[in-house]
Amino acid sequence: MTPSGQQWYVVQTHPHAEGKAVVHLRRQGFEVYLPRYAKRRRHARRVEVMASPLFPRYLFVAIDLIHQRWRVIRSTVGVANLVCSGDEPAPIAGDVISRLKRREDSKGCVQLDLAPRFSAGDVVRVVDGAFSDCLGLFESMNDDERVLVLLDLLGRKVRVTMSMDTIEAA
């Protein structure tokens, strides 16, 4: 529950229009929260880190259903719909927003758990780089999102360190 009887609700936006919806909802006086995370994007052999929506096409808005004209949210630029249960907006659990905000870093990005997607011995395929399309065995992951993979090259097992985003399940 936020101050003055407001509760948090979920708004669905049009594709790639989260930022536009935030601007227009704030202009109408609503408190809005768009959680973001640091996304690594590979393009033209460069890796960029950019803030991307944690829940693409969704954001949160605090509404006092009694005192605010909440129905205008549906016709706001960038908004596709307000998630409802019947005719009324469906509130989310009160601590969801506070738990997300507690996980934010100094740049406002939610810190995600970096648990490895693979366990030791899983067969993986390299999808980028010099060893593209090679199969290997996942060994482990170190602290800075680098993984150790055993590749079979020229009849020998070779341990290679690479970025986590360059492998996928085979």
TrEMBL record:
Keyword set includes Transcription: yes
GO terms of biological process kind: DNA-templated transcription elongation; transcription antitermination
Stored CDD domains: KOW_NusG, NGN_SP_RfaH
Any Pfam family matching the protein: NusG
GO CC, any one term: cytosol
InterPro entries recorded: NGN-like_dom, NGN_dom_sf, NusG-like, Translation_prot_SH3-like_sf
SUPFAM superfamilies attached to this UniProt entry: N-utilization substance G protein NusG, N-terminal domain (SSF82679), Translation proteins SH3-like domain (SSF50104)
All residue ranges annotated as the NusG-like N-terminal domain in the record: 5-104
Annotated keywords: Transcription, Transcription antitermination, Transcription regulation
Transcription keyword on record: yes
PANTHER family, per the entry: RHO-INTERACTING TRANSCRIPTION TERMINATION FACTOR NUSG, TRANSCRIPTION ANTITERMINATION PROTEIN RFAH
Record protein name field: Transcription antitermination protein RfaH
UniProt source species: Nitrobacter winogradskyi (Nitrobacter agilis)
Gene that encodes it: rfaH
